[in-house]
Design a protein that fits this description.
single chain, 412 residues, alpha/beta, nine-stranded mixed β-sheet, 11 helices, 15 strands, 34% helix, elongated, binds zinc ion
Length: 412
């Protein structure tokens, strides 16, 4: 039976972790930044050293092909991969694992002289973490990038995508040309760390992912009346912050009560104007994010929260403006890919459970164009998007071997 070379995979993980390494551990490697571009060059070198064909598309996606040097409907490929960009002060496995395990699988298959019926390709999708645009590279590949939106795409610090890509040697206006021809991908399977505590706490080595959450972001603007904080009688105040605070607590309670245990909510952006201690807040803004693996439930919860905001505004004499700023739809993973993961686990004598993904992944874009799915390995302590994110060495090896089995199954 073909297996991965675990020592080589661990060496690759350690090598990639050097690009953007932080003194205290972890990495900062935003897409298009110098450390990311150095990592891209290194990855292309490793792809070629493994005897694969390496290429980069106009959206900055890096590919390594075994029996493929591009995408065409005539010879559909089985695709795997993930991303090599990270969040600021992120860990060394988020994304990197899926790319390097995919590379290792193709390398091992080539060395073993195995001849799968379909070509195999490993991808490193650009800007998965969405510094400039959420799941950018896979979105472009799947034909979902709006050319008209590109000039205005920018990071939170104001840096424009076009400038960041130009510095890295790319023309952002050409990124939509990365769209693959229809029918060019037979199936997609992505290995990722779970990034939460469920597998680690259950002591189960592998999960086949059955769905990926959709994410809604809504900006709520509460408008009251700025007033002197000393002289205005309490009962006459129209305090916008209090309405926002009331909403924050009650929206959370509603989602916990009606989210079926699978929906989560976060208010991570709050601003109060004019933002001084001796003025009653005249305006308060929130960004409310909610996630669910169930599309209907997500819509119901979002509508209920909007109604709640209006009720609170009416009761407190506060104007409420609601803007839905972004929305992704929950995605169901292909039964065929889930079965390939389960079968590979069985072949290796590994227990396998089913989980939904509480985080967004490139696999959700691929699901729009092909049979797409994922597998998770445990994250120790459920830690992720932090510098001490880690998984056991054996867990990584098991995950890579299950990915190998699933790829051979899908390519047969
Ligand atoms: Zn990731």
């Amino acid at each position: 039976m073909t297996t991965v070379n675990a020592a080589r995979l661990h060496a690759h993980i350690a090598s990639l972790a050097r690009f953007g390494a932080l003194p205290g551990g972890g990495v900062t490697r935003s897409c298009w930044s110098p450390p990311h571009e150095e990592a891209r060059a290194w990855l292309l070198g490793e792809i070629r050293a493994a005897g694969l064909t390496g290429w980069v598309d106009p959206a900055g996606n890096v590919f390594g092909g075994l029996g493929a040097s591009g995408f065409s409907a005539a010879t559909p490929v089985v695709l795997t991969g993930s991303h090599i960009d990270t969040v600021p002060e992120g860990g060394i496995l988020d994304g990197a694992l899926g790319v390097l395990a995919g590379l290792e699988c193709l390398h091992a298959i080539r060395e073993a002289g195995a001849a799968p019926r379909r070509p195999l390709v490993v991808a490193a999708w650009s800007d998965e973490e969405g510094r400039y645009g959420s799941l950018f590279g896979s979105r472009a590949f799947c034909g979902g990038l709006d050319p008209a939106a590109i000039p205005t795409m920018a990071a939170v610090d104001g840096e424009r995508l076009v400038d960041a890509m130009a510095r890295a040697g790319f023309d952002a206006t050409k990124a939509p040309q990365a769209a693959a021809p229809k029918g060019a991908v037979h199936a997609y399977v992505e290995l990722h760390i779970e990034q939460g505590p469920r597998l680690d706490e259950a002591g189960v080595p592998i999960a086949a992912v059955d769905s990926i959450v959709g994410v809604r972001r809504t900006r709520l603007i509460f408008s009251g009346q700025a007033d002197h904080a000393g002289t205005t009688p309490m009962e006459r105040r129209r305090d916008a912050f209090l309405a926002a605070a009331d909403y924050s607590l009650r929206a959370r309670d509603h989602i916990v009560a009606h989210g079926g245990g699978r929906s989560v909510t976060n208010i991570g952006v709050v601003s109060v104007h004019p933002g001084v201690s001796n003025i009653v807040p005249g305006r308060a803004e929130l960004v409310h994010e909610m996630r669910s693996p169930d599309a209907e439930q997500l819509e119901r919860l979002a509508s209920a929260c909007e109604t709640l905001a209006r009720e609170i505004g009416a009761r407190r004499g506060i104007g409420v403006e609601i803007r839905r700023t972004s929305a992704t739809t929950p995605v169901t993973c292909a039964p065929r890919v889930q079965a390939a993961v389960a079968t590979a686990c069985k072949g290796l004598g590994l227990e396998c459970t089913t989980l939904y993904s509480a985080a967004g992944h490139d696999a959700q874009n691929l699901a729009l164009v092909t049979d797409s799915g994922m597998l998770f390995i445990p994250s120790r302590g459920g830690r992720s998007h932090r510098v001490d994110e880690t998984s056991d060495a054996e867990a990584i090896e098991r995950g890579a071997n299950v990915l190998l089995g699933a790829l051979l199954d899908l390519a047969s």
